[in-house]
């Protein structure tokens, strides 16, 4: 199992950006295989939609560093780990700007970027970015079209319902060929169908902690991944080449043992070979985050 961790981006960790490079460098030295960012813009006072099926927004989302700045920092500070996004909310951005940022980070890291995209869930964030939330699925499809063209063609031209790229010379291409691996986060049926049609892999989530007692996220993961690979095959694609990277999402009550057990079960029971652990709810500073990473790696690899 390849195991990664989130970069210090949210909550208390976001208030110490001067330590982000040190975290990336030391996490790599500990044996981490990947480092990850997400994409939160704000935490509404009275949210119309809460987080993860609740009616509230975690206080950690009140502080958020820019994902692209963190990835660039980690790219400069490391040599081996992969650098991933889980997820960038693609409809918020003009696809050409996303393509330029992703290409730059992939080149800075010499081909270590994993691109994970999604659509988000917060109406207030869509309101703030000026993008109609009802258009998010269509805009994600167009974004995938533009990214593919930007990375694999020259000149590049695209004309869609929402975005346009006039015929242009784009000489700078990613180091990863034909382009960085592209993953999608999805749970709704239409979104999962898009994953099967268009993505190199899926980004599922396994919650861990006391409030999830009585549920079995690993069993649900195994069932969901098996069904998704069947859909991939029906789309005429090779399910053996379809990947999944699991986000292990522990709450503040989760222990290192709980996290390690979830990682091990995901590999043994669902066949997942790569996961990463969200540290925002467990660590208040970079030293604590690094200690958690060290203990998770030790426990998971010892099982």
Overall geometric form = globular
Class from secondary-structure proportions: alpha/beta
Beta-strand portion reads 15-25%
What name goes with the CATH superfamily?
A: Luciferase-like domain
- Mean pLDDT level: 97
Count helical runs.
9
Low confidence ranges: none
CATH architecture: Alpha-Beta Barrel
Cα gyration radius (Å): 19 Å
How do the SSEs run, as a string of H and E? EHEHEEHEHHEEEHEEHEEHEH
CATH class: Alpha Beta
Major sheet description = 11 strands, parallel
Count of strand segments: 13
| Annotated CATH topology | TIM Barrel
Q: For the record, give the distance between the C-alpha atoms at the N and C termini, rounded to a whole number.
A: 11 Å
Q: How many domains, in number, for the residues?
A: 1
Please estimate the helix content.
25-40%
Write the layout of secondary structure elements.
Elements: E1 2-6, H1 20-30, E2 34-37, H2 67-77, E3 82-85, E4 88-89, H3 95-108, E5 113-118, H4 123-129, H5 136-152, E6 156-159, E7 164-168, E8 182-184, H6 189-198, E9 201-202, E10 205-208, H7 217-234, E11 243-244, E12 246-250, H8 256-270, E13 274-277, H9 286-302
Parallel strand pairs: 1-2, 1-13, 2-3, 3-5, 4-5, 5-8, 8-9, 9-11, 10-12, 12-13
Antiparallel strand pairs: 6-7
What key attributes describe this structure?
TIM Barrel; 303 residues; globular; two-stranded antiparallel sheet
Could you explain the architecture of this structure?
With 303 residues, the chain is an alpha/beta fold. It has a single domain (2-302), classed as Luciferase-like domain (TIM Barrel). The chain has 9 helices and 13 strands. Helix 1 (20-30) packs parallel to helix 9, helix 3 (95-108) packs across helix 5 (136-152) and helix 8 (256-270) crosses helix 9. The longest helix has 18 residues, at 217-234. The model has no long low-confidence stretch (mean pLDDT 97).
């Amino acid at each position: 199992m390849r195991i990664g961790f989130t970069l210090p981006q949210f909550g208390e960790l976001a208030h110490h950006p001067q330590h982000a490079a040190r975290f990336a460098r030391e996490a790599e030295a500990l044996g981490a295989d990947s480092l990850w960012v997400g994409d939160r813009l704000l935490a509404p006072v009275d949210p119309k939609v809460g987080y993860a099926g609740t009616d509230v927004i975690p206080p950690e989302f009140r502080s958020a560093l820019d994902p692209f700045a963190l990835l660039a920092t980690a790219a400069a500070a490391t040599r081996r780990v992969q650098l991933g996004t889980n997820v960038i909310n693609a409809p918020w951005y003009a696809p050409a700007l996303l393509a330029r940022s992703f290409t730059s980070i992939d080149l800075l890291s010499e081909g270590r970027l994993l691109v994970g995209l999604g659509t988000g869930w917060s109406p207030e964030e869509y309101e703030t970015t000026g993008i109609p939330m009802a258009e998010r699925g269509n805009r994600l499809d167009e974004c995938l079209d533009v990214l593919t063209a930007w990375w694999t063609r020259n000149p590049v031209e695209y004309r869609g319902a929402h975005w346009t790229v006039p015929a242009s010379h784009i000489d700078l291409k990613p180091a990863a060929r034909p382009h960085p691996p592209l993953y999608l986060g999805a749970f709704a049926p239409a979104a999962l169908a898009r994953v099967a049609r268009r993505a190199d892999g899926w980004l599922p989530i396994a919650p861990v902690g006391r409030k999830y007692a009585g549920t079995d996220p690993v069993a649900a993961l195994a069932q969901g991944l098996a069904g998704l690979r069947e859909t991939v095959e029906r789309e005429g694609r090779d399910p053996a080449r379809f990947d999944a990277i699991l986000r292990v999402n522990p709450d503040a009550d989760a222990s290192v043992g709980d996290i390690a057990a979830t990682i091990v079960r995901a590999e043994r029971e669902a066949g997942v070979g790569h996961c990463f652990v969200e540290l925002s709810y467990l660590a208040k500073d970079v030293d604590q985050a690094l200690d958690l990473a060290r203990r998770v790696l030790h426990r998971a690899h010892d099982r």
